Amino acid sequence: MTNSWMNWAGDQACAPAEIATPRTADEVAELLARADSAGRTVRVAGAGHSFTDAVLTDGLLLRLSGLDRIQWVDRATGLVRVEAGATLNALSTALHPMGLAFPNLGDIDVQTIAGATATGTHGTGATLQNLSAALHSIELTLADGSRVELNEQSDPDGWRAARVSVGALGVVTAVTLQLVPSFVLEGVERPVPVAEVLADLDEYVDGNEHFEFYMFAHSPLAMTKRNNRVPLPERPRGKAVDWFADILMSNYTFDALCRLSRARPRLIPWIHRGAAYAGSYRRQVDRSYRVFASPRLIRFTEMEYAIPREHAVAAIERIKELGRRFDSPMPTEVRFVAPDDAFLSPAGGRDTCYIAVHQYRGMPYEPYFRACEEIFDTFEGRPHWGKRHFQTADTLRERYPHWDRFQEVRRRFDPKGRFANPYVERVLGPLD
User: Fold this and answer.
1) Which of 31, 59, 30, 28 has its CA nearest to residue 43?
2) CATH code of domain 5-62
3) Which residues does 432 contact at the CB level (< 8 Å), separation at least 6?
4) Can you point out the beta strands (E) in 37-87?
5) Tens digits of residue pLDDT in 27-85
6) Is CATH 3.40.462.10 the right assignment for the domain spanning 184-383?
7) Are strands 171-178 and 184-193 parallel, antiparallel or unpaired?
8) Which residues contact 253 (CB under 8 A, 6 or more apart)?
9) Per CATH, the architecture of 71-181 is what?
């Protein structure tokens, strides 16, 4: 029987020579040493929520779902040691009763901790960094089966490279996370005219711990979401209310409208206006991770770019106008992130605005995404490593001040190129 793997969106697939699901770090080491002896390349699959071909391999594919345990917790310092295959949701659920939480999360939380950090996954918040900034130390297993522990003291460059590595250095088998005391968020969603949001963008972004919005090309409204800490007890919404809002309306109903637009693209402007108006006022007071994330059942593909925050308004206006020229029923998402110092972090060294564009499954994405990328390029854009883009190492090198330092770490940890694949060689270049 042929081994096969497919991502969540269903648009990336491969047939590796071997798929393995190790349950211990020692098993990972044995598998890597065997692959090294056989001259096979190795890639790792997390939850499959990347839209690129980053995972694809004809060699050994490791699935780390068996390495999902919490190894230890230090409540006093907030340090937590976890295995690489644990998902963000599972960690949040298990750690909340212990009084700990991630300081920030994105709008989905089904990814593994290793996959989410390796691609620079982020939430939103002008003073909050991406998820990889929470990595206090990283256990990396190399091609020969040896293991190294990377932190700011033991190997500063290795640590800064491994936090956002696109899987190009080795297999992350465990990480130590710096978490914060658990907290309750008040999430408020309401429609606001896009023009009003952009006119007072700094006030919205700096006046809330977490601010984001969605907009449609053919609607004047933005669907805004503001999340802020409150000294209140959690008040989970009823299951029926959750199902109606998050499953029936946001997923099933919108999915049906997207299918309709795929068959009849001329309806897209009407769908945009209706969907934006349907985003009525909602308020939620609950545990942080329940407010941050919501279910995503609609299948789509996505491009997301990080641009300097000072260009946010100009870029958003241009992307919104561009969207009117292409047939996509889906919204554009806008978020904000603080700078960090990981070598390949898209938000590295600068206050960042992230802009994400989407295309529904089965509808052509490339012309739309290429046109968007031309705009992002004019604003010094850096692509999200797990989302579609058309960049190469030659076009990316100048966008990352520490590019050469990352490559030095890559040559040191993976001199034979065992953790490369066509995606890695395309975006990072071949090893010298």
Assistant:
1) 59
2) 3.30.43.10
3) 411
4) 42-45, 60-63, 70-74, 79-83
5) 999 999 999 999 999 999 999 999 999 999 999 999 999 999 999 999 999 999 999 99
6) yes
7) unpaired
8) none
9) 2-Layer Sandwich (3.30)
